[in-house]
Design a protein that fits this description.
The complex is a heterodimer of chains A (282) and B (390).
Chain A lengths: L4 H26 L20 E5 L7 H14 L15 E5 H4 L10 H5 L1 E5 L7 H5 L5 E3 L5 E3 L9 H5 L6 E2 L30 E2 L5 H4 L6 H9 L4 E5 L6 H8 L1 E3 L11 E6 L11
Parallel strand pairs in A: 1-10
Antiparallel strand pairs in A: 1-8, 2-3, 4-5, 6-7, 9-10
Chain B lengths: L9 H27 L14 H14 L2 H9 L9 H22 L8 H4 L6 H29 L7 H24 L12 H27 L6 H32 L2 H11 L9 H19 L1 H4 L2 H28 L14 H31 L8
Helix pairs in contact in B: 1-14, 2-4, 2-7, 2-8, 2-13, 3-7, 4-6, 4-14, 6-7, 6-14, 7-8, 8-9, 8-13, 9-10, 9-11, 9-13, 10-13, 11-13
The chains are: A alpha+beta (282), B mainly alpha (390).
């Protein structure tokens, strides 16, 4: 088949229009499509305007309590164990007061607070610097406040790691699906219900979006309820009747590095009584 | 004009093959890194950027420094720079190519690099840096090539190139400003969170880049029949002196703010770099080397009687270049990560594969630079004695 110049131009014009139109149609379809790297919400899905967590360390008594929360998270999400701090990947972990809240410590503070370990995780900030700096929108904020990460889009530039003021992000410096020096798999027991990651991408806590989508609480919260009611509380910060709001309005809570304006969604209970002042609106 | 790069002396080819040897070694090291991940480098959860990003940052400055020749020549009609502007533009091309290679070497998923353009993110400084660096590369290739081609034919460059030349002036400033913004806009990184960061970057760029140009110009004179001239080299020497003075002054301002305010978080990185923190002091000898070399070079540059001796000038420029390379290509990036977000100290040192890859990127840069300079110098040799006019 041969085409003359006029036909060629016409074809080219039509193709160009189809190209532009195609993009428009595709964008329209996207309204109903999932955002990158999300789970389809089921009929029992938990929803919120802004998810938040309250961490009350007084409810954690033994090192075993901390370990159970970490293990629950890391095994659910196939977090590999590289057994060295250099390549380490962690989503939730304990730090002493002076490392969790640097600058807040003083030499005379009570031993208990000083020696207490605080569970740290991604703060799911209202104003997240990691989202601001990502050059590909691989990390983004959902409408419910959760800061998510698309593992298939991440180019591994690690700008988000430099930007996060909370050291919440880990990079897959080595293949997480591989084996350690002794031939043991880095992911001890793979959870087939959750994806493993590829080498060279950044990951962090997701507030268990995949569990919220099927009506379950985050893994760490669920397991903490087994040994300490109220150690980790999860709920909607926007709802005045939610458990998290009740605690925050009744007790003295602090957030990590609140002075830099990222507005973390994780609150730490430092003192006060249970529901000391119950707001009238309840 | 490319054919001019294909005819050269034994030394020329020997040098190119030497560079290719390093590039080959670096390629193998990169394959190793590509397969095993960035875990083969010294990078860690706490120090997530290191030598690669440091070199990138430093070389953006070298690239931007071409403007120190363009401004006097095209905006102030300083005719003496006429024959060497091309050396600055070609240096910029090779520096930008090195920058891009260092970014690629640092990426965890280099095959996905096009995601930057598939999902353009206007709020990301890194997106803008990609845009301005590519633009700057394009500008310097087109300006350098068109003006040199005209010179080789003994004619004036076409009028349409002028807007590109004028555009390259603010563009050069933009590449280094945007690169500084990568650092200066991060909450929680006190060492980088400084309003003077971009100004400091520009000052060090306008000192380090022209210092390298002086060394290169002296080499060109020694190795070829083209003499860049005594006066342009002295003029560059003055530029280096002023810029270096500004750079050291800006660094002093950082010290003042950190230590007079007495805010511990602002002092930690300085402590780590110059004295050690919590018993960790791997970078201290390097940073003091940088400081001493800075003082030595500045002393030699400030007095015209020293600066006018080309041997002394060359020595001062080498000292200055090494000083800035340590300060900006290494200390600045690592210092920002120490202490980490939990006020703990993790140290960093490049590994052997990382070092080989770094050397290979520099070798690639010098390869491109050698070929481009060969072309430029051959044109100058062939048209010796003819006045050029742009």
């Amino acid at each position: 088949m041969s085409i003359n110049r006029r036909e060629f131009l016409r074809l080219a014009g039509v193709s160009a229009l189809a190209g532009v139109g195609g993009v428009a149609v595709f964008n329209k379809l996207q309204n109903n499509a999932l955002e990158a790297s999300e789970f389809t919400a089921g009929p029992n899905a938990l929803n919120a305007k802004r998810w938040a967590m309250v961490v009350d360390m007084s409810k954690f008594k033994t090192p075993e309590d901390y370990k159970r929360c970490m293990d629950a998270c890391h095994s659910t999400h196939n977090v590999p164990n590289f057994s060295n701090p250099k390549d380490e990947i962690k989503w939730i972990w304990p730090e002493k007061f002076e490392h969790a809240f640097p600058g807040q410590e003083n030499p005379y503070m009570n031993e208990e607070t000083k020696e207490k370990s605080f569970l740290l995780l991604c703060n799911h900030c209202d104003n997240p610097p990691c989202v601001r700096v990502c050059p590909t929108k691989a990390t983004f904020k959902r409408k419910d406040g959760i800061v998510m990460q698309d593992m298939h889009r991440c180019i591994g530039c690690r700008f988000c790691m430099a930007a996060c003021p909370f050291g919440a992000r880990s990079f897959n410096y080595r293949n997480p699906r591989g084996k350690d020096a002794n031939g043991q798999p880095l992911i001890k027991e793979e959870n087939a219900a959750y994806p493993t990651r590829t080498i060279g991408v950044v990951e962090k806590c997701t507030f268990c979006t995949e569990r919220l989508a099927v009506g379950k609480l985050p893994a760490c919260v669920e397991v903490s309820n087994e040994f300490s009611k109220g150690g980790l509380v999860f709920g909607d910060l926007d709802d005045p009747g939610s458990e998290v709001r009740k605690i925050i309005s009744a007790k003295y809570t602090i957030r990590r590095k609140s002075e830099i304006g990222t507005q973390p969604s994780v609150f730490y209970v430092i003192g006060g009584n249970d529901y000391a002042i119950v707001p009238e609106i309840l | 004009m490319l054919d001019k790069a294909l005819k050269g002396s034994r030394g020329y080819w020997g040098w190119l093959f030497f560079l290719m040897g390093i590039m080959g070694a670096g390629f193998l090291a990169y394959l190793y890194q590509f397969k095993n991940g960035l875990g083969v480098t010294g990078l860690s959860r706490d120090i997530s950027w290191g030598l690669y990003i440091g070199q990138f940052t430093f070389l953006v400055g070298v690239a931007a420094s071409a403007v120190m020749l363009v401004i006097p020549y095209y905006l102030h009609d300083y005719k003496k720079f006429g024959k060497i502007v091309i050396l600055g533009e070609f240096l910029a091309i090779s520096a930008v190519i090195m920058c891009m290679l260092f970014i690629m070497a640092d990426m965890g998923q280099p095959m996905r690099v096009m995601n930057i353009f598939l999902h353009p993110t206007l709020n990301s400084v890194l997106f803008w840096d990609t845009v301005v660096l590519n633009g700057y590369l394009f500008l310097n290739i087109i300006i350098g090539w068109i003006t040199l081609e005209s010179d080789s034919k003994g004619i004036k460059p076409p009028q349409w190139i002028k807007p590109f030349i004028y555009l390259s002036v603010p563009w050069a400033v933009s590449i280094h400003t945007v690169t500084a913004f990568i650092y200066a806009g991060l909450p929680g990184r006190h060492f980088w969170l400084s309003a003077i960061m971009a100004a400091r970057f520009l000052a060090s760029a306008f000192a380090g880049g022209p210092a390298l140009l002086i060394i290169l110009a002296l080499l060109v004179r020694k190795l070829t029949k083209f003499d860049p001239g005594k006066e342009p080299i002295q003029a560059l020497g003055k530029i280096v002196t002023y810029a270096m003075f500004a750079n050291v002054f800006f660094l002093g301002l950082e010290f003042f703010t950190a230590f007079y305010s007495g805010i511990p978080a602002h002092q930690h990185s300085f402590h780590y770099l110059y004295a050690g923190l919590d018993g960790y002091n791997k970078l201290v000898p390097l940073m003091w080397t940088s400081s001493i070399l800075a003082v030595v070079s500045l002393f030699l540059l400030i007095f015209p009687s020293f600066r006018k001796k080309e041997g002394v000038l060359a020595f001062a420029c080498v000292s200055l270049f090494i000083s800035l390379w340590i300060d900006k290509g290494f200390g600045l990036v690592i210092g920002g990560f120490v202490p980490n977000m939990f006020e703990r100290v993790t140290e960093y040192w490049p590994t052997i594969p990382e070092t080989i890859i770094t050397l290979a990127v520099w070798a690639t840069g010098f390869f491109v630079l050698t070929v481009l300079y060969k072309i430029a110098v051959t044109v100058r040799e062939e048209t010796a004695g003819i006045e050029i006019e742009h």
